[in-house]
Amino acid sequence: MVGVFALLLLSAVALMQASKLCPHSCLCYGSSNLVDCRARGFTRVPHTLPHGTWLLDLGLNKLTELRSHSFTGLWSLRILVLSNSSVQLLQPQALSSLSFLEKLDLSHNELHSLPSDFSQSLSSLRELRLDHNILEHLASTSLEWLENLEKLDLSYNRIQAIELRALRGLSRLRHLYLQANQLAVVQDGTLTMLQGLEVLLLGQNNISKIETEALTSLHSLSVLGLEGNQLERLKFKTFLNLQTPGTHLQLAGNPWMCDCDLHRVFSKILRVRHLHMDDYRNITCHAPPQLAGASLAWVDSQLCMAETATVLVITITVLVTVVAAIVMAERNRKKNQGKNLNESEAEAQDK
User: Are the C-beta atoms of 167 and 173 separated by less than 8 Å?
Assistant: First the structure.
């Protein structure tokens, strides 16, 4: 009996020692809670990581792909850094066992897509960095389990489209960074469930259209970045639908078509108390050619005057034409009347 107890005790001690082992060439701190494996030339996730690790830095390695169950046993992990590690592929269940992970950094890698089960084991995640990859598409299932996510960085990718349901599970999201992608349209329904969103950055895309109801559900939005896109015109109703305490708009760097309609839209936006156009003085005209490069703030008061003058010229021209036609018709009538009278007199003399 004593022998069995001793054996169990030795096994427990061995397990405790194994849990504190530090992978070869890594540095472990704080009783092995912080593990630094940064820039160590790893091609796969090391297997001898301490079970009590809560921060693991594997950045600047050569992982290429994350295999299934790469982090098995790391139940205590809270922060995982995998940036600049040449990651191209995430195999199914690559991130399983990370149910308590709060921050995941996969930035500056070579990811083309996310597996459908990407978020399945990440229900506690609060911050996710996927910026500076080569993602082209956001599928509806990839992010659906991130119910506690507060910050999502997808900037500097190649995303052309976001499926309508792709962001619907992110009900607690506060910051969404999508700048420097290839989005062309902000669609109705894409942002429907993001009622708590505070910052939405969409600058440096190819956005030429914002659908009328696209921003309606964003009741907490404080910053909306749309600079450096392909916007030529806006609908006032699109921004009027932003029922927030206060939203700062960034709209410079777009190829604006400066005409009276655009002047009216911007004038209305400037008068809405909860909308603040931070960069209005930096908004410049792209067309018509005679206004290219001119500040909208400088020419806006002249746009409708020019349009009014044009309307007046056309109106006067039409009136002059109508009056001339009436005068000519009256002259012809009198001329014909005189001719008829002369003919009648001539006939009377002949009789």
Answer: yes
